[in-house]
Amino acid sequence: MAQVNQAQSNIPGSWSGNKGSNSAYGSYNRFTTIVLPGGTDSGARSQSGVFGAGEAASRPHRLIPYCRNSRFTGRQSLLQAVKGFSECEGHNRVALYGLGGSGKTQIALEYVHQRAAESNCHIFWVQGSGVLKFSEGFKAIAQHVRIPLARAKTDETGFLLSVRRWFESPNSGSWILIVDNADNEADFIGNNSPIAKFIPQGTSGTLIFTTRSRLVASRQDCRMIEVGKMEEEEAQELFSKRYCGWGGLKDREKEAVAAILSSVHHLPLAVVGSAVFMTENATSPSIYWTILQENEGRMKHLLSRPFCDIHREVETESTLGTYFTTFDQIRQQMPPAADLLRLMAFLNHQNIPEELLTQCGLKGMDHSADFRCAIGKLLGLSLVTSAECQDKTFYQLDRLVQLSLQAYLQTNELNHGRAAALKAISRVFPQSRDGRQYIDPVYIPHALAATKDSTDPVAEELGFRVALYLLDMGSYDNADIQFRGCTAL
């Protein structure tokens, strides 16, 4: 791992912030702030937003759309991994990949602000969430490095390639380019893909992608760093920095905080969203926890409420809403994976046997190659994880993803998803008593989940079979509850 220069200094260079509703950079920032040695700030106005001639022009360029996040918490091992991969000799390509809301952008942001304080390399940041935003980012870079913008109006492709060539030229020196939210696989998976064709290579410089897609990270030949959820202590510390009443909390309230953070699986975006809601609505953790436990509908409503974070691309976001774009892309790019995900929304989110999915009756799922492509898509986007147990493969759908999916689907899609889940369970649940004795108990939680709150006749029949199985197994109380549920349908 490369050694990091720990010497602290003022941050030289030209800094630009993010203004405007359509671009992280607004209409090309017209103020350039130069931080001079000794900490003196000098604001320099120019018509193009680039340095004038003289000493300022030789200073490193800094185009980072977000200020440093003073509430950044933990993730030190991930930061060290980024440093190790980014500070090697030659050209470096690194990807922070993982589930939406896991903090990839915040890790990249903290790293570049640390690097800005320690070195004289150029640092640039562009959005990879779409061709238009990427193009706007490259235009902002062009202004800083004095590439004429006139060509962009008549030959945008040629203009963007000229920015790429600047990065690849010896004149560019040492640089870091962040490509944030590189989530749409269609934009990055081939050399001639809409955004990938403008990504610089060369013999120097460092590219850091933040992406939900392992495929994007792989196709861009990156050293991969998987970003998961926070440790319990990290999540609590992050909450304490975002909830204004933390210092006065009693033990009962802190216990409620621990329960809340566990229920959202210590996902940073959900931790921040919960803290912001409580702060803005003067709600104690115990009251918030009570609401969260009432029922799934209340939980979905609470986690769907938007909040603002100035250190992210979008101005407002919700914990559940952050996955909607990913669902859209799956639906467009691989419908069989979307169908499989929709079915999983109505199973228990844990310990889903692979056999249940391959025999579910969905088109193509009984074909090994098609199934591998579909489940691989979901695994690659970190929506689903897998584990091996006694030579069998089981999958887990992240609970927040499952709630988000149920909030995302239209009524007819919800009905189709539940029907597919009921059909899948019915196929492995025999009617005869002799057959029931061979049922693997692992299917029971999925049968209960699929039949829950359903008025479908298939659900009643399946629920009755489950009740008989529980009776056969001597679980009389649970069998009685299940029988009562069937008669209530």
Automatic annotation (TrEMBL):
It comes from the Eukaryota. Residues 86-241 form the NB-ARC domain. The keyword Hydrolase applies. Keywords: Hydrolase. One of its GO terms (molecular function) is hydrolase activity. Residues 333-413 form the DUF7779 domain. InterPro entries: DUF7779 (IPR056681), NB-ARC (IPR002182), P-loop_NTPase (IPR027417). This is P-loop containing nucleoside triphosphate hydrolase protein. It comes from Tuber borchii.
